[in-house]
Backbone:
């Protein structure tokens, strides 16, 4: 229908726009992953960041992992939802609340982020066997927040 009404040039332009948006999103995710693992996490743990070469390796590994996950999964669209809601909520909610309310040490925040994201990822693998209504992202975020509150203390 679009081809008849708009012509092939307009349909091609729309397809190119969609692909550009997807590539931009993937590039952003790869850059965020690289910056987090190579610079932010070591800094939060009191260690020096890694080199540019490690940043490139992490970016490549993250891109390959995402490609394998998308190609190998029968639920590719569902994994976009997992990333968009569950994984980011589980990993970023403790950091945002810690920054807003000055909660605890950076080690507790980093551990809460890793715990929340890990719980979300593991539960997502077993999602077909989970009880109805159990949301992996929400459970991961809740456990991360509990960890943050339980192990937060002033940095010395």
Residues:
């Amino acid at each position: 229908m679009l081809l008849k009404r708009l012509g092939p040039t307009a349909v091609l332009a729309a397809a190119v726009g969609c692909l550009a948006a997807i590539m931009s999103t993937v590039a952003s995710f790869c850059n965020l992953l690289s910056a987090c693992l190579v610079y932010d996490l070591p800094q939060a743990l009191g260690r020096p960041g890694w080199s540019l070469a490690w940043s490139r390796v992490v970016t490549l590994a993250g891109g390959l992992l995402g490609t394998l996950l998308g190609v190998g999964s029968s639920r590719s669209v569902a994994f976009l939802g997992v990333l968009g809601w569950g994984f980011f909520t589980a990993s970023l909610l403790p950091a945002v609340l810690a920054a807003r309310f000055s909660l605890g040490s950076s080690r507790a925040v980093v551990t809460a982020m890793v715990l929340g994201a890990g719980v979300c990822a593991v539960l997502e693998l077993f999602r077909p066997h989970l009880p109805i209504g159990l949301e992996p992202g929400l459970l991961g975020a809740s456990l991360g927040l509990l960890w943050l509150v339980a192990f937060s203390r002033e940095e010395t």
The chain has a mean pLDDT of 80.
